[in-house]
User: Fold these one by one.
Assistant:
Number 1:
Amino acid sequence: MSTLCGLQIVPTMPVDELIATVRTAEEMGYSHCMVADEGLMHDVYAVLAVAAGATSSIRLGAVTNGYTRHPAATAAALATINVLSDGRAFTTLVAGGTMVLRPMGIERSAPVKVMADTIEMLRVLWSGEKVSWQGEVFGLDGAQLSSGPHEIPIWMAARGERMLTLAGEKADGIVLMAKADLGDALERVDRAGRSLTRIYLDRLAYTPEMIAEAKGLYAYAIMDTPPRMLENLGISDLEIAAMKAAMEVGGPAAVAPLVTDEMVTSYQIAGTRAECRESLIGLIATHDLDAFFVNITSPGLEANTAMLEDIATIIDGAG
């Protein structure tokens, strides 16, 4: 593939299917795979350890946060994956969302401070030196990783103004969703004047079934979402309130009937295969994107393999 291409897996499927999906993606030429640390789903580092042994070239990353795992534990876990994979580890940090934190009774407090401290702690521990360090939330006292120094890229998935600013200042890469918000989000990242890897995460919808599925997943697009993004998505306060109320009562399935085709196409790439290809070409050119990642959120190895094949073809056409 001429365009850097990867996938994110939300680990809703059996472990053996997840590993098969990673291996299949590598065989197709996908360069990166990140697995979401969803708290009560399959453990992300156990899965990545198995994936490291089952693959040889694809880079392996955890999408994790500084609330459900202490950053020092995250540093050690990612260093272990880096050893097992011969240097293929990376990570994407998120601020921690309601869907993950609420079941554990964890309050999402001071997210910018937690994120900033997490980035700094990972880097000082990956120096391999014995360090004492104090951030605003976390600290270290004579801490040292047993596996020595590591160079592991740190990406951030960010939406809010302050998180985007922090990404521009501190991260190695920025992961963005919401097609209609890409320009405004990247404008805030770019204010720092640094060069970051620019990644767009999406789940292309190019069949009626995929568009219907996108409507079912749309509820997650409005959870913990900053006003700027909601405004760019073009949904009114009344529509947002109705969807949030439906989510509380019946989950994503209850939200789907409230979602229009226009809402879907504002949030993600959708349409025919040709329309998806043209949309992706335009996004890459307009926003100077370095990578496209497809979001795999549901089980079904055959269906997900077919989707990976289709998207590889679309990406080749867009590259």
Number 2:
Amino acid sequence: MKALVIGDSYYPAQVFADVFKDYPWADQVRYAEVDSDAPFSPATESEKRLRECIGTPADVIGHLHSDDDVLVMHGAPVPSEALDAAPGLKLICCARGGPVNLDLAAAQDRGIQVTVTPGKNAEAVADLTLAFAVMLARHVPRAAAHVRAQGGLGESTYEGAAFFGNEVAGLTIGLVGYGAVARFFARLARPIGANLLAFDPFISALDCERDGVTKVDSLDDLLEASDIVSLHARATKDNQNLMGREQFARMKEGAGFINTARESLVDESALAEALRSGHVSGAALDVLRPAEIPGRHPLAELDRVVITPHIGGATWETLRRGALMAADEIGKFVAGSAPSHPVPVRKS
């Protein structure tokens, strides 16, 4: 077996090297990095099918050998032209939830097995969600904006009177979607006394009850009962703007809103209106749609909002888990076993 690992500025190859060194096939792996600052302007039809890439296809092609059996990467763009440079490839492991930076059709047409590393960041995103819940319960976004506007703390020890909030214990937190992130969040929030609701038409009440979570019958039921609403649904073409004007209006007066899932789930104009009116007391967002016009995003101007630059999965533990999952796939390949997380072959 010959394997190539291509790292990038987000997911350095050294993370894989540190994990792979203890495996019996470690000496058959070489490591490279794409130039993460190099601009990529898709030119071919295959390149135009790629999303969320870092580096260039030319960089990838330069690192591949014709007799490579395995390719492991995270964000490097892998169009059909790169696959042509390594006709011996039999396995590609994309260390993320979906192989959006790979021309999947081209790979599967060549008989290449493609695997991914689903759920590697679930614990990290759950961590951030809990931090966001505490921040909203205690009105941290407004309080922090107040200090920035003041240029520091005032002399009065009573300034905090304007920012009274609640402790998380006793609050009702509604989880829209009940997948891996929501489950990890439940494990964190239940022991500190939060009451948890979940709406997910694809899971059973028993699945929720095992985690101490109550399943509700509709999104409206969840919105009307929750002190904080947190999005954890998988984005699809059918649930764009799942949270719109009607949904924000149904939320409890003064409730908080969290999105650590996908930006497409939220009508951000409707959220901004709900925040300006005070009906939604605050929002914590790890994802945003690109601003429609150049300049600052409208939500970034509101003192009731905290925004982070998609850091939900940005922990070293997440990267290590992904590397361990990739190592598992390589081990199964070497042993001639079926992969743990294969991407289903598309129907022709």
